[in-house]
Amino acid sequence: MSLFSLWWEALPSLLVGLLEALKLTVFSVGLGFLLGWILAFLRMYGGTVAARVSGAYIEFVRGTPLLVQLFIVYYGLPELGLVFSPFAAALTAMALNTAAYQAEYFRAALSSISQGQVLAALALGLSRFQMLRDVLFPQALRLVLPAWSNEVVYMLKSSSLAFIVGVMEITGRANLLAARRFRYFELYLLVAVLYLIVVFGASSALAAVERRLRLPGLGTEPARPRMA
Amino acid sequence: MGDLLGEWFGFLHGVGVTLQVVAGVMAFGFLFGLGLALTQVYGPRLLALVATSLERTLRGIPVIVLLLVVYYLPWDLPPLLVAIAALGLCSSGYQSQIFHTALRSVRPGQVEAGRALGLTDRQVLVHIVLPQAFRLAIASWANEFSAQIKETSLVYIVGVAEILRHARRIIAYTFGNSLVIYGFTALIYFALTRAGNAFLRRLERRLAIPGLGKPLA
Amino acid sequence: MRLVQIVLGFLAVMAFGLAAEEVFVVGLDAAFPPFTWVEQGEYKGFDVEVMRKIAELQGFRVEFRDLPWATIITALAQGKIDIIASGLSVTCERAQVVDYSLPYWEVDQAILVRQDSELNAITAFLGTVVGAQAGTTGYMWLEDNLVAKGVPVELRAYETYDMAVRDLEIGRIAAVLCDTDTALGFVNAGRNVKIVGIVKTGEQYAYAVTKGDPYGLLPRLNEGLRKLYELGIWAELVAKYFPGRAVEPVPLVPNDPCR
Q1: What is the pLDDT of residue A225?
Q2: d(CA B129, CA B125)
Q3: Is C162 within 8 Å of chain B by CB?
């Protein structure tokens, strides 16, 4: 069978898998976004104990491989009675992982906004909540956007790990198709091509959003994003 | 659990293999990545374009997919080589970006000044641009280094006997204890990334030149 | 001059070594007891021992290499290994890319469920999650006879059968489909599983070599099987690895896998 007819035959199944990968990415980054803000706030304003705990969590997660975290969730937690399906395990591990990285981006963004603005807002009579919503967040979100886009792309690529615990995303499907046709190299090559297309698409879209939201005079945040 | 000592040696051996892979990957990524970055900044236009697209391609493919593609090449490569080639290619994409940024932040005026003093292009590169660029790059490079320590956990799937593969082997024949063993595995990685970062931060301080700024991110 | 002498000496030793003994790489998935497994870095199992004995009788040497099951055919087709000896069933798809020895074993597919489960051979496959090792005839049977025919069942592919059985024990899946002897192995090892039914697939195991048999291995493997049986070694090995199983004469009469 020629390369292209093999690819053509595999494409429908791989596209279904791609959808699964996108689902994993969107949900995990979304959950990580919420959890990341919580961790960042605890680390900055949460009092000694909460700040320590949040800091330790962030450092530990950032210092260990996502794959090992996935194995702890999928193989380890059932020993405590917590049995996740492959998708739920992958989603949990990915969300817990990206939350730690996102927390650091948020913290860097928050700390680069001058304390003077907070004081000024409070002096003008804004409540703490209004100050957060109208002064800190709009700036912090813009500052964090480059690192955050990077993180989205990183998680999109990382979702390919989920096949190791049996999620039928794109790599897993390629693996099963290849097991019957004995054409691994060609099928993984197709997976690589599909990822390239989606990654380029996602980064261009996110770059467009960045350009759209850019404010003159507002700098970029100083945290160093992970490579993606 | 009679041969607990044997398990310990197994883990130590795994750490040794992981460090070998990391060293190979960083070296491969350094050479190829620096080559790509130099081509992008100083190469002829067409080659620079090729280098840029290659860099972006390498950064757009998940490591695990690249690893599987290399593994299933129709050549009989030993697993260690497969691992180093695949992760090294990925890393060269990132390292190229790091060096690209660093090279760009050495001001063009310095290159011109060097030339005006009668240095050849090669001398300008070796004595003026690279010493500064490397110093500027070291913080990002350290970041990439610890990222690669973590990435190496993947290579167990092509049969490299590193830390994670050892952990899985123990679990396979002791029937369980997954939580403890994977937890312990995580601690080993944590210690490795910590130690690597501390070492590189010291190196960075040692090599620092007063007045030489951070690269433009 | 010294250097030339050393090099020549080295070459002579190499040439002598090569002429003295042919070495073939036998690929296996060391997670398929009682046919293959690994213990303290040593390859064990029925197929491992049969291969060693055949090599001895036929005057060649074998080296074993552990590979993920799903990839083992590709590795042989690409020439990364020379022989597969790992409880490999003869199938039509595989026969397109590798060549088989005469068959030496017959199996069907067994349906495993948890010991406390009330599922039977029918309900185990209705609206449940069923696991099998990726790239096995068990997995293919599920794909071809259930999923392709619209039976509401979810498949889960595993790297090894051991992992599938583990997930069955903790309740992540409802059933596992695997070769009968392997299934019996799990039951006899005291795992929390039982066999609730057999799917009669009538599969035959055989050894496989690269397509076209470039090293002329097939006649030697077939001859080796015949000799093992005649010398009574075969019966000893069957008794050692499959206590209580009847000894059939080998090689068996091959079925046509593409019928």
Answers
A1: 67
A2: 5
A3: yes
